[in-house]
Amino acid sequence: MERDFFEIDAALLRENASQALQQALSxxxxxxxxxxxxxxELDRPIVLDSGSALRVHPETIVRMKAGCGGCMARNRHVYDxxxxxxxxxxxxxxxxxxxxxxxxxxxxxxxxDPDETMRDLSHIISGTVFFNRAERVVIRxxxxxxxxxxxxxxxxxxxxxxxxxxxxxxxxxxxxxxxPSENGVIEHMxxxxxxxxxxxxxxxxxxxxxxxxxxxxxxxxxIACEGDEMRLIPGRKTYKSGRKTLCPVENCVFEDISGVxxxxxxxxxxxxxxxxxxxxxxxxxxxxxxxxxxxxxVHIAARAGGLAEVSLDGVFEIGADCCNAAFEDVExxxxxxxxxDAGMALVSVGPKSSTWTRGYxxxxxxxxxxxxxxxxxxxxxxxxxxxxxxxxxxxKDALVQARHLTVNPDYPRTTPQGGTGYGVIKGVDIQR
Length: 432
Description:
Blueprint: E1 6-7, H1 10-28, E2 30-33, E3 40-42, E4 46-48, E5 53-64, E6 73-75, E7 92-103, H2 116-121, E8 127-132, E9 134-145, E10 150-155, E11 158-168, E12 175-178, E13 181-191, E14 196-201, E15 215-233, E16 235-238, E17 244-247, E18 249-266, E19 289-300, E20 314-319, E21 321-332, H3 336-341, E22 345-349, E23 355-356, E24 367-368, E25 375-384, E26 387-388, E27 391-392, H4 396-399, E28 400-402, E29 422-431
Parallel strand pairs: 1-2, 2-5, 3-5, 4-6, 5-7, 6-8, 7-9, 8-10, 9-11, 10-12, 11-13, 12-14, 13-15, 14-15, 15-18, 18-19, 18-20, 19-21, 20-22, 21-25, 21-26, 22-28, 25-29
Antiparallel strand pairs: 16-17, 23-24, 26-27
């Protein structure tokens, strides 16, 4: 049933948009912002309570002013779960955020946010839209433009829908999900992002995440991007107290995808570890588990290098334990022969090694970006109706390969350093 929306007076939004919107939401719960001939500037995030709805005209521009930081819109109750899940957690429910052109968001201190937790976490939280411990959330029909934060950051959410987003010259991740999250749909997304178009990060870096845990039952579909990557990260979170939380990625489907050249399905330590003492480094102590993952109707234009010139060994790069992964109706523009000549396969299993010099000439200050000594196993890989270069492909060597690293004896004269890790493949089924 369609809700009745209160349309806020445009003049109020010119004077103090954040205050006017918050007052309107408190009084009416469902608020519509009309088409504005000026940017609606926020000096603090819009706070959405349970049952509230905000609809912004699709041509109205929303911008972040100094002091907003952290995010531009969020739910009421947010938590710092970097030390573990707290007690008496209150969840916000049944929230709609719709429309608008949200542009030029920055990762900056949120000094004007009324919530102390948000003020403390604004150096960690990086989402134009941020929902934490929220249920039955709908985010739709939005343009995100030239943002320097994740477009949508969902942390510990369930029963959510993210629908019809366009990323226009966007600099960071598009939709970034942290565990524990489940039962979500991410669909009808277009445009280009400077990092992962969609990221399902059950384990994640402590420098950009406030919650950790399993991600389950997510559907990502109808995606048309422009040379982007997607990411899945499992692992195990170790809190400072020594308590551990498993962070698997399970029961997820990716279908009707185009414009993605690399699916990153590997464990990756925090890239800032090179700047930290050994005791403070951030990494998963196990490879992590991905289980029951399906890729269906995926079109790929392969390329040789990833972001930061990280070399590619496969289109789907598995560097964690994986059980039951299916690749159905996948089409590559390149031929099987060309893919193998490049040392790649559709799916590669095993660790990676890449050296980040961080701009220093001193190798002691360089950082390894991956886990080159990791050993991981992929079980039950199923391929059906894969095409390469316009022809059906049942060539196992083109479809899947195991990576075996070696230590580089010439390091640091040449890079990367390499390692002793390798991938194990158990069970491959191929159908034309």
